Protein: Zinc transporter ZupT
Organism: Soonwooa buanensis
Amino acid sequence: MIVIALILSVLVGVFLGKYFGGQQKFAKNLLVMSAGFLITICINEVFPEIYGSGEHNVGIFVIAGVLLQMLLESLTKGFEHGHFHHHAEDEHILPLALIVGLFVHAFIEGIPLAQEKEVFSPYLTGILFHNLPISFVLGSFLARSKTFSPKFWLVVLIFALASPLGMWIGHYFNPEHKIYFLAVVAGIFLHISSVIIFESNKNHKMDWSKIIFVVLGIALAMLGHLTHDHHH
């Protein structure tokens, strides 16, 4: 069930990007809303689990996640933030570095899922919501193309299977180590959501639409948080 949800989140995002990718405002709003959702999941769900574990120096792994994401962005060039116009002279060919960066990013996110006991945990919903805008940007590469090429489908398949593969590999790790992988992912989430939310507004003017979509993302995450607490 978790694997199907992970793959579907990528496919839905790709098709949305394919048919709505030309609408940059739609893409921006989706990204901003997902950032609000992601940072709320981090603060309400992931951080309490990490720091409530009693593991010493777990914060170092959060910082490592932030630094790892900075390194990955040297490969992806900010693809996760919607910066997809820098990548290739041929808009239908994705650079190998970008594919590697996205794979590593999604693979690491999948590892803690191996020890998740709930079908739709807050952490999983965070990944699903996070996958949508990234795969939306992926689909946007074909916004001006009439067909899905085999090479493009290969890239989509690699990205869609990265988190499930990470989840599968995660079963071979000691369950006690889950908290460290979760801390690394928390750092990744924190960096991505912060960059999207706090990117400089044009002429440093107040961007009310950005604030509204951040609040919408936060509200969705809070609704899930309250529902999750109610069931426990």
Summary: Residues 86-93 have pLDDT under 50 and may be disordered. The CA atoms of residues 91 and 141 lie 6 Å apart.
